[in-house]
Description:
Blueprint: H1 3-29, H2 35-40, H3 53-67, H4 71-82, H5 89-115, H6 120-131, H7 136-142, H8 152-185, H9 206-220, E1 224-225, E2 231-233, H10 234-237, E3 279-281, H11 286-295, E4 300-309, E5 321-331, H12 336-351, E6 356-364, E7 367-376, E8 388-396, H13 398-403, E9 412-419, H14 420-428, H15 441-444
Amino acid sequence: MSDEDERRKALIEHLFAQAERNRVVGQAEEREGHPRTQALSSFSESPSASSSPEDLEEELRRRLQQLGIDEGLRQSLAEVMASLTPGSPLQGIIAQYLKEYPMDELISQAQQELASVHKRSDWESCKARFLGPQGPLRALVKNIQAQAPEQRPAFGQRINAIKTALEELFSRKRQELEREARQRQLPPPIDITLRPRLAANGTLHPLTRLRRRIDAIFQRLGYTLTEGSEIETEWFCFDALNTPPEHPARDEQDTFYLPRDLELGNVPRRREGERGERYILRSQTSTVQIRTMLAENPPLRIVSPGRVFRRDTNDATHSANFHQYEGLYVDRKLTVADLKNTLFFFLQELLGAPLQMRLRPSFFPFTEPSFELDICSPSLGKLSGQWVEIIGCGLVDPDVFRAVDYDPEQWTGFAFALGLERVAMFFYGVDDIRHFYRNDWRFLQQFA
């Protein structure tokens, strides 16, 4: 065997030994097999000493293809090639193999880096490093001219294949990043096997529902709905309603007075002077009746619902703010009979028949005579069958007509007022007025 044959044989044996060491290390990391480990398992014997030089060269090419390459094996090949005769076929085989090594390594490096990329900006940077004008692939393209003329076509094809593989890697990664970005924007998935939740549609508050029902009844009787400001002056709330200065209702312990220096351009005072009128939070919606009579001539029929304020201690039947519903009818020759028939029709429409009603004498500064209206009905929940006070009413006091420049000799009228919450408690069977203001969904959903 010639010296060159011996060198070839020694090189192959050296490669086998290096590959076996790599295999042992690899087995510790990859227990389930690897293409390189599987290839090494067939290298159980060294090539025969009687093989021809051509056979040995072909054997070397084939097994180099099967072994792949890593940094340790590449260094071993470089050391062995340095000991070979310059220009020998064996040296050419190894040189070509080492030349192709960085091209294959580009793909594995790109795969490793892309595995840790999770943002589009990182993807752009990684792509520029491999496929950009300063990247390693561009350097390989420039190296085509350094190849032998007969090797340039194969070398160029190899570069194109690497480029195509890299572009496919980056394209798949970009699609993956876009898919993950879309998934983050989507709402959480819906389990269609669960029973659907009923839509929580809004509904009117029970006080609003009752007020609209009362509105409809009085509109059928020819009454007009009027509203006014919740801030009023003393004259409209007390003086015009025949309430004297010493009346307990005008005490600050009963009424919410606003600062003396407060000026409101949209709530005009009736009386100006040295003392002036103080602004207050209205304690009754009768102020709307006074302003309406000042603005309109009789006859008239109005109802004035709205919120009022009094210094009451909150409990099951009292609140510092609540809703009143007042009515006023002004015409010629109205009597108590007109008042009684109007209220009987209203209550029977609201609560249904059978209904008993009675008037008890009472006192209010703005009506004369004045009455408390009681009812007995089977529609009052726990109070069914009992007499219950529900409305204050009476004929309009002549002094109230004089305050608004109505002639009490020509015009008569009656007025009435009820607390909307009080009626709602009877109507809906509620035992605590505070439920209407707490916005408790469990309470309100009963009226949906």
